[in-house]
Amino acid sequence: MTEHRRPIIAGNWKMHKTVAEAKALAEAVRRGMEAIGGVDVVLCPPFTSLAAVSSAISGSKVALGAQDMYWEAEGAFTGEVSTGMLMDAGCKYVIVGHSERRSSFGETNEGVRRKSAAALSAGLCPIVCVGETLEEREKGIAHDVVREHFVGAVEGKSAEDVRKIVFAYEPVWAIGTGKTATDEQAQEMHAFLRGLMEESYDLDTALGTRIQYGGSVKPDNVAGLMTREDIDGALIGGASLKADVFLEILTRVAG
Asked: What is the domain-level CATH number for residue 74?
């Protein structure tokens, strides 16, 4: 991580926590954050808990994010949630193209492109996820997959748009498995992504855009990851569900 890119840590709670549990967790993170500075923190609870978490973190340094969205403003789209609804609930961020959305729910690069464009238009910061499966890595096509994810997401977007996006590199084989990409593996792919940004846009865009790492991030491995030049933060799953663990990660990042 370089000095001019502020680290960003997002907690993706996935399909966990009732409203009461989410409120308690958010309040605990808020209290803990009072003594931690120098890092952007985002909590991404399920849709049902957005309002409660928004209220719990109101006026604090903690921001609210959603786990997904739809690109249309309104209409006959049963089960979907629009950018306006997310903004109304207090969101500033939204995760787009998470590997679980891609693998379990048919998310496509085109969908990621449309969702991220709608998020930017609404004033939301999209956290755009890219990353390969274990099979793809073993086949030697990890870079091709990440390139496709990146190019698909940014198609039609300006350099100014891209600098407003947070990218998250998630090696799918390291999500919820306990496996983590080594610091070297993570840095290598982050550097590759930054190179794609320079190739597609310019050096300023590449140097000014934040890239998180996602995949079994814990207190004992986050410090090493964050020492790497191109890793600007983390998208955290399981370790964000317990306030003490999440705050320990934040403390080590703020360092």
From this structure: 3.20.20.70
